[in-house]
Amino acid sequence: MSDHTDLLVIGGGISGASLLYTVSKFTDVEDVTLIEKESEIAAVNSHHTNNSQTLHFGDIETNYTLEKAEEVKEGAELLAGYLENVDPDREMHDRRSKMVLAVGEAEVAELEARYHDEGFGELFPKLEPIGREEIAEIEPKVVEGRDPDTELLALQTPDGYVLDYGMIAESFVEAARTEAGVSVHLGTEVTDIDEGGEGFTVETDDGDFAADAVAVAAGSHSLQFAQEMGYGEDMSLLPVAGSFFLADDLLNGKVYTLQMKKLPFAAVHGDADVHDPSVTRFGPTAKLVPALERGELSTVGDFADVFGFTLSSFLSYANVLADRILFPYVVRNLVYDLPVVGKRTFLPHVRKVVPSVEVGDIDRAKGYGGVRPQIVDTESKELDMGEAKIHGDGILFNITPSPGASTALKNAMVDTRTLLEFLDSTYTFDEEAFRAETIDNFPRLGDGESSDEDAGESSDEDAGSDGTVPSEDASSAIEADD
Ligand SMILES: Cc1cc2nc3c(=O)[nH]c(=O)nc-3n(C[C@H](O)[C@H](O)[C@H](O)COP(=O)(O)OP(=O)(O)OC[C@H]3O[C@@H](n4cnc5c(N)ncnc54)[C@H](O)[C@@H]3O)c2cc1C
Known about the structure:
With 482 residues, the chain is of the alpha+beta class.
């Protein structure tokens, strides 16, 4: 006999947890079930050691088009608003300075054009261009030891949210569990999904579940499930592992470098860890691996499934890797994980952020990092930027490379609308209440947030020695600046 549920969510990372929260708190769907194969929530890419802990708004990501930034911004504001609402003591997040740094004439010109001519200054009113002196006030180590004749410019914002996505996922699951009809099964692996009759039978290693609708939020494995059911056959995955290097107390907030064009992976950046600001992280690297999860040999076979060994996957990989920017980048990245030589070769990336760093100051963070499922379109034979969503009949699949964690609540909002259509009933989604708990709490300029001109100053003045803005101080500074 199967347990019956209206909606079954597969995967308890930030995506599945956001959806569970949204459906259980803001709709009248009666039964929602979440199934996660690990014994805890968010043990894979959403765990705080495995990603860059950044809430991507699109303001300092110089590989985003304005259109992409507009899309991502709403997602980030939803999540930031949720955190401003439920996490006043900043246990799951912090709000620090964030900047993207241009070094040298060409990069400075590029960043100026982005801010003044391409619409990013207008889209992000809290983003401010700052020069060498202001950079040195906020991030002294970025300027220390740098050639005084090299031009520097940064776009800086106080919206440098640094997040523990794992704790946030747990908070979503906890909030959902207070509602009737919610059940969460940890340590339960989904082995198959069968479509038929009135709905779906989801087979697990702990028995079967019957569901009217299914949302697959299983990271890279979402594509594997989709393809087993005949969906997403024009896609393959390029799994890209990211590692980090650690150093002692070099930065107060986040410092991104300018993105290399055509690369879908975030540029190397430096930042202070969400839970211990005295630890500075540099990364992530981008190493191709034939597996869907970091350090999990059992997922090599899963990679083989999504690769498919078809002519079009081989041709797509060949086309993607033949790129004259991507190929040398990928080869260089193979070296960074090697002992001794790895950190020496990675050092120039770190020095672009903090010039005075010596090789002895950094160490590879053992056990840190995850695998980004970069999507390959096997029809166009190109690498796609960002996430993908596949809609079936009564089932949807989310594949979530960066910025999938930043946009998890937005995806949940969009998916909830779709799932209610699938359920084909009188269920309703109280979007006003959803917004009241989330995006309505996001601090805006002219709405209690400091003015454009003062944003940099206030974050600096009000910051503790570690650059963080304590939550009470943040609100008083915000009001004083009104
Ligand atoms: C190095 C790196 C840096 C990143 N930095 C950022 C960043 O700064 N900001 C950002 O927004 N994004 C970042 N990302 C991307 C981000 O980590 C992901 O988008 C996000 O964690 C995806 O969440 P998810 O819930 O979809 O997937 P996951 O967190 O991977 O969760 C999927 C879950 O599904 C479960 N699952 C899989 N198969 C099954 C099955 N058969 N049965 C049951 N459960 C199953 C897994 O155990 C897992 O818990 C980064 C990623 C990497 C690798």
